[in-house]
TrEMBL record:
Involved in the transposition of the insertion sequence. Residues 163-183 are annotated as: Disordered. This is Integrase, catalytic core. Residues 46-101 form the HTH-like domain. GO terms for molecular function: nucleic acid binding. It comes from Propionibacterium ruminifibrarum. The lineage of its organism: Bacteria, Bacillati, Actinomycetota, Actinomycetes, Propionibacteriales. GO terms for biological process: DNA integration. It comes from the Bacteria. Residues 163-174 have a biased composition (Basic residues).
Amino acid sequence: MSVKYRCINREEGNYPVRSMCRWAKVSKSGYYAWRNRPKSSTARRREDLTAIIKVIFAESEQTYGYRRIHAELARNRTRVSRDTVRKIMAAEGLVACQPTKRAKTTTPAPDLPGRPDRLGRDFTATAPGMKWVGDITYIPTWQGFAYLAVVMDCFSRKIVGHTNRRSHAHRTRHPSPGYGPAKLPTNPRCHCLSLGPGSPRWVQLVVATP
């Protein structure tokens, strides 16, 4: 019976109480007697726990599941079972953000061993535009990964081009609207741009200006 009363109480204000009692086949007087009855100590404790759990969940930026929230409650000397915490979170719709796997931004090319190291591990330059280097990284967001590609001039150490994209699956050998550094300056003296960690041959994107 209390399940029906709770359902009516939840929808009170959206539908007439008289109609809901008729639909649920309960008396109107019985519902009001249940609603006006003082709350039990168990119900009051559950309300207090719910409020505390919501605060901990919000302070964790919605990353704590019921186990970590239970541990936090234990540290604060609040005695409650894990199962109770789990049920309260489920009833309140508190779902922790799930960890995502690490994004893979560097993939060796099939012909990697045969590619020349044009920079020779020398990242110095005597003039602007002689050597460009860059890399691709990922930025975790609530909606997934955002991929950022940047290009830096070895002489000035300034970023001369950049772009971002939701996916890094597309690769190109030239700057283009689809992917790769946007609005790169054209310099006939620039002979190589290599991207990737460790060795310039580990590349996701290679650009050579004419």
